[in-house]
Amino acid sequence: MKHDPYSLTELIRNDDFVAWVRKPDERNEMRWRQFLQNNPRKKQTVESARRYIIFMGEDTGKSQPTSEQSDKMWKAVERHLRGEEEVKDDEIVEEETEPEPRKILSGWRWARIAASTVLFAGMASFSYWYYVNHAGQANRFGLTVIERSWENRVEKNNATARPMMVLLPDGSSVVLQPGGILSYEHHGNAKTREVRLQGKAFFEIVKDESKPFLVYTFGLATKVLGTSFLIDAPKEGKEINVAVTTGKVSVFALEGNDNAHDQVNSKELKGFIVNPSEKIAFSPESGTFKKSLEKVTVTESEGDISKQAFVFDETPVSKVFETLEKAYSVKIMYDRDRLGDFPLNATLTGQPFKGKLEVICSALDAAFEISGNRITIVLMSDQ
Amino acid sequence: MITSDTFILEPTDQQLWTGIRNGDEQAYTLIFERYHRTLYNYGSKLSGNSAIVEDAVQEVFIDVWRLRAKLTENVTSVKFYLYRALRRRIHVASDKFPVTEELTMLPDQEMPYTYANSETMLIQHESNSMISRRIQEVLSQLPERQIEVITLRYFDDFSIEEIAGIMGINEKSVRNLIYKAITSFRQTPQHFLVSVLILCLLIIF
Question: Which end of chain B, N or C, is less packed with Cβ atoms under 10 Å?
Answer without folding.
Answer: C
